[in-house]
């Protein structure tokens, strides 16, 4: 296990020790100090002439967490239940929610202990040195770029559905990229929190409409012609290993917004309120996932479309996508914003341009937005299979960034804890080791399964568009 110095020896961005930096930050955000500049271990001195990167309330943070999670992933959950069966599928959702919920909690405690941490890359450097920083930083960034591509893909499917392919898919993908890129260029999470509210209302409206529609529809979009068909939604199903692992990784993708939580807690006014956001956000999210997945699977069964919004009849499908488009855009905005800000902070860290409105600041920021959008567009065009893209991202990147890293973070941070050796410490240690091993298994097996399925779909031409 890596040795680490006591907190008082850790040096943050501003040259202060970790303890001093945290204390100074806590003092300077005290409202009694009025307009005194804030000194943060990541952003440095935040004054009135630049963006306020420490302004998120816990309610705004909760909304951003929900919008980061509730989006593309929820559209794949009914299909996951169609593979696993109702009972195993719901158990899988609850189990993954508990594992990811613990990971989300660890991010907050680690941030409080190490204020200088802003992203997964910072974690990599702290735990594994410069090489770890590059590996985990690239994995984190690639994950967000892939999800940005999935956002472009889902929106282009929506536009194609509404217009009945009146315009080339590539053109719609470009339109989606421009919309998301423009909105994501707003500089701080506090100023785009309203987009999170819009996105939540949009997605919730779409999935509620979908649930009502599949429960009352005389015909589903993928049902065969004629009346000789019936919905089958058994509680238990027999699935191949490849199909089962793909379903699990789709569920993991639905909880895959975890790496964005580093940025969210990093911009909260009071990071100690972060645990509150996890309890509220994770509970609401999991409850919604269970209801939507179970209802749509029960009424649609084997005729679930990919994405799920296309499951209901022809007209309802258009309505669902029309309602969902703002939510899909909002999810893409969050992803592009966070991934661009990771590169932005990496480029300008330790520079006065990071938190001041200088020409260098703006050139770097808009350049990062353009880079992420361009790469996301390439991914959306290269992998035009919605569920396959979700399962590949979930297996190859989400497990690493959302389970394995956080479980090791807890072990690393508590290895020399005063409570080491107590029953509670031993149980938590064992739990994190088990989570870490589960993450590795799903990562290897899931990547294999996703590649096999992706290859087969390319051969069969089963486009999701």
From TrEMBL:
Topology relative to the lipid bilayer, per the entry, is:
Multi-pass membrane protein
Q: Which InterPro entries match?
A: AA_transpt_TM
**Does the keyword section mention Nuclease?**
no
The entry's protein name is Amino acid transporter transmembrane domain-containing protein
Write down the species: Kwoniella heveanensis BCC8398
Outline the segment boundaries, as ranges, of region: Disordered: 1-27
Per the record, the coiled-coil ranges are none
State the Pfam families in the record: Aa_trans
Q: What protein family does this chain belong to?
A: Belongs to the amino acid/polyamine transporter 2 family.
What subcellular locations does the record give?
A: Membrane
- The principal localisation class reads membrane
Domain called Amino acid transporter transmembrane: residue spans: 55-449
**Range of residues in the leader sequence:** none
* Keywords from the named record: Membrane, Transmembrane, Transmembrane helix
Where is composition skewed (Basic and acidic residues) in this entry? 1-12
A GO cellular-component term linked to this record: membrane
Q: Which GO terms describe its molecular function?
A: L-amino acid transmembrane transporter activity
- Residue ranges spanning the membrane: these are 74-100, 135-154, 166-186, 192-214, 278-299, 319-340, 361-383, 389-412, 433-455
